[in-house]
Amino acid sequence: MKYSSQAVAKPYFIFALILLAGEILFGLLMAIQYLYGDFLFPLIPFNVLRMVHTNLLIVLILFGFMGATYYLIPEEAERELWSPKLAIITFWVFAAAGVATILGYLFVPYATLTEITFNELLPTMGREFLEQPLPTKVGIVLVVVSYIVNTAMTVLLGRRTVITTVLITGLLGLAVFFLVAFYVPDNLIMDKFFWWFTVHLWVEATWELIMGAILAFVLIKVTGVDREHIDKWLYLIIAMTMVSGILGTGHHFFYMGAPEYWLWIGSISSAVEPLPFFLMILFAFTMTRERKITHDNEMALTWAKGTAVMAFLGAGVWGFIHTLAPVNMFTHGTQLTAAHGHLSFYGAYIMIIFTITSYAMPILRGRPHGNSKKAQKVELSAFWMLNIGMLGLTLALSAAGISQILDQRVGTDLVGFMESQDSIAGIYMVRAGFGLLVFTGLLTYFASFFIKEDNA
Ligand code: HEM
Ligand code: HEM
Ligand SMILES: [Fe+2]
Predict the structure, then answer these.
(1) Rounded CA separation 231/212 (Å)
(2) Which residue has the CA at smallest separation from atom 38 of ligand 2?
C-alpha cells in the first residue's frame, strides 16, 4: 500500500462482501418460496424477502464503490485521502443506517414503517429498489455527499487523471439521480418516468462510468500498460455510454401512456447500449495481450476480464434481447426481465467489486504480490462456481420467461398467470439449484482469503 489512508477501504470491502452473502441468502429463500409457497409463512412474506434482496444489492454496490474509490483515489491523486477520518465515520453511519433499515423491513410491517418514518411528510416509499424510509434516504444523501467531497478534495489537492475525472463524474451523476427519488408524482405515468431517471440512469449511465474507471485502474496496475493508452479506451467507452445510455431511458417508456415517439427513441438509442460493454471486452483483452508486466496476482486480471465478458452478456446481450419496442411488447415484466436483471447486475457491478477487492485486499493485508498460488487456485474455482451459477440461473429464468410469454401472450389460446407459473415449477427448481452453486461459490471465495501463505 503506497498511502496509509488507503486502509480505510478495507472495512468497506469486507462489509460489501458480508452484505452480498446476505443478499444471495435472501435470494435463495425466495427461490424456495417459489417452490413451496408457504415456506416461512407467515414469518417473512415474499415481498419482504424481495425488498431485502434488492436493497442489500444496492447498498452493497455503494459500499463496494466507496471502498474502490478510497483505495484508488490516493494512488491516482498521488496524495493521502483528504480526510480518512470522515471516510471512517461515513462507514459507520452508513453501516448502522443500512442494518437498521434491513431490520426495519424484517420486523416492522411496511405500512407501519411508512407511518413511523414520516413518509407522510414527503412520500417516497413503496417503489422497487427505492423502498427506503425517508430518514434512510436522507442518510444516503449525506453519506454520498461526504463521499464526493472527500474524493473531490483529494483530487483537487493532488494529481488529476482521466480515471479520477471519469470516476467523479460518475459519482456526481449517482448523487444527482438519487435526488430524483425524492419526487414522486401522483400520476402513475409520471411516477414511472421519474423512477426510471434514478434506476436506469444509474445502471446504464453513471454507474457505468464508475465501473469503467475502476476497470481502467486495475488494468493499469496488473498489466503495466501506459496510462495514455488506457485513457483513450476509457474516453471511447464513456462517450459511447453517454451517447446510448441517456436517451436509452426511452426503452422503459413503451406502451405505458408516454408519447409514441419513445418507441423509436428508446429502441434506436438502447440498441446501441451494448457497444460500450463490448468495448470493455476489447479493452480488457487488448490490454492483457499488450501487457508489460505479469502481476503475481493473476486473479485480479481474471476478474477484470470476467467482468467485461459477463457485463456484456448480462447487459449487452440479455438487455438487447428485449429492448426493441415490438419485442418488449411481449416480454415486458416477465421472467426474461428478471434473467436480464440478474446477469447484468452481477456481471457489471458485483464482478467489478470482486475485481477491485481481489486486487486491493491482498495489498491491504500486507501481500503486495497477491494471495498465495494455492489461495488463488481456490479463488479461481470460486470464480467459476459464481459465474456458472449466475449463468445457469439466468438461462433457467430465460426459459421460464419464454414459457411464460408463449403461455400468456402469443396467439389466442392463452392461460392465466398462475396456471402458467404452475407449468414452469420444474424450471424454478433448476434456478434454485444454480442459486445454491452461486452461494457455494461465494463461500469458497471467502475461504480463499483464509488460506495461509505458501511458505508460512
Ligand atoms: C449493467 C447494466 C444494466 C443493469 C444493471 C440492468 C438492470 C435491469 C433491471 C434490474 C431491470 C428490471 C427493472 C424492473 O422493472 O424492475 C431492467 C430492465 C430492462 N433493461 Fe436493463 N440493465 C442494464 C443494462 C441494460 C442494457 C444495456 C439494455 C439494452 C440493451 C437494457 C434493457 C432493459 C430493458 C428493455 C428493460 C425493461 C424490461 C421490461 O420491459 O420488463 N438493460 N434492467
Ligand atoms: C449477486 C447475485 C444476484 C444479483 C445481482 C441479484 C439481483 C436481483 C435483482 C436485480 C432482482 C430484481 C429483478 C427484477 O425485478 O427484474 C432480483 C430478484 C430476485 N432474485 Fe436475485 N440476485 C442475485 C442472486 C440471486 C440468487 C442466488 C437467487 C436465488 C436462487 C435469487 C433469486 C431472486 C428472486 C427469486 C427474485 C424475485 C423475482 C421475482 O420478483 O419474481 N437472486 N435479484
Ligand atoms: Fe434501462
Answers:
(1) 11
(2) 338
